[in-house]
Structures are given as structure tokens and as C-alpha cells.
Amino acid sequence: MDKRDVLDIYREQFAFEMDRKKDITAQAQVRFALIATGVTLIIYMARNIELKIENCMLLIFGVLVFTSISLFAVAALKLANAFWNNEYTYLPPMDESEAYRKALEADGQNQAEAFEEYLLEEYSECAGANRKTNNQRQQKLSSIVSHLKAAAIPLVIAGGMFVLLDLDASSARKITDINVIELQKVTYKQIEAPEAKK
């Protein structure tokens, strides 16, 4: 196989891994949005739960919310690890590659063949290292899905309790109690404006 054909294959593999990096990052952002949505629902339910219900119901609701929050926290930590602190390898800057090519030319070596070898080596190293990093990130994202599914189960049960048992204290269907503590007579005194100086 011609070296130029091999170089084209390596170049395509390098570009593929860089595109894959973007796809994995987009997947991680979707998972962050799912976690944020779940936590927002939990916060709303926790803030607005009717506290005048049976202790048993309150305890069940609390356990479900705590379980869901715990699983979301584990998923968020794993997701942060998949999103940040990943090392990618890039090709050398063009000015360094050009300096290397000129050095080959000055040494009198077969410039084209030696430079192709240099490019083959760089593309091969970069694509291989980036493939390993992408595979690790993809495995981390796959493990997060199981945590998200597990967190969704208690969230759905707690949400069902919240809606079906009408546990929302701020619900429009609830009767609002108004307690008048003390009535005071309010008097108004009219104040005259001072006369303007002439």
C-alpha cells in the first residue's frame, strides 16, 4: 500500500476521533440537562410538600426523594469525570512541522519520504491516543445511564404521590386558611402641604 494512501487513512481516523469527541461532549451535556431537570423537580416538590399529612406518607416521600437525590449526585460526579480532565493529543503546530521539513531538506535526506514518515507517525499517535480517551469517556457515559434510570424510579414514584395525593401545599385546589390575629382601627390624618415661598 502506498504511503500516501496510509496517510489518508490515518488523517481520516484522526478527524473521526475529533468528531467523536464533539459527539461525546454533546451526549454529556444532554445528561447534565437530565440531571438538572430531575433535581429541579425534586427541589420543587420538597419546597411545596404539604406538611400536614400523615407521618408515614411524609417518611415514604422523604426516603424516595433522598434516594433519587443520592443517585443523581453519583451520576453527576461520574458525569463531571467524563466531561472534564480528559487528555487529547493534537498534531504539532504547523510552524514546527515546517521547521522539521526544512531541517530534512537541509540535511539532504529524501525530504518527501522522511516527511511522510513523520506525518504517519504523528497521525498514528494522535488518533490512537484520542481513540483510547474517547472509549474511556464513552464507557463512563454508558455507566451513567444506569444511575439515571435508577434515580428516575424513586423520582417518578415521589412525583406520582405528589400529584395523585395532592401533596402540593401551593395547589389552587387547597383551601387557604386566613387567621386574623388582631384588628386595629386605622385612622388617616390629612397633612397639609407647606405653603410655597414667594
Order of helices and strands: HHHH
For the largest beta-sheet, the strand count, sense and barrel status come to: none
- Classify the oligomer: single chain
Number of helical segments? 4
Overall pLDDT confidence: 86
Q: How much β-strand is present in the residues?
A: under 5%
How many β strands by DSSP?
0
Low-confidence stretches: none
Silhouette: elongated
* Rg of Cα set: 33 Å
Q: State the share of residues found in helices, binned by percent.
A: over 70%
- Beginning-to-end CA distance, first to last residue: 105 Å
Structural features, described:
The chain has one domain. It is mainly alpha-helical and 198 residues long. It is elongated. Helices cover 72% and strands 0% of the residues. The protein starts with a helix and ends in a 34-residue tail after the last helix. It is built from 4 helices and no strands.
Layout of SSEs?
Layout: H1 3-48, H2 55-83, H3 94-107, H4 111-164
Provide a concise account of the structure shown.
With 198 residues, the protein is an all-alpha fold. The protein has helices spanning 3-48, 55-83, 94-107, 111-164.
What are the key terms here?
mainly alpha; 198 residues; 72% helix
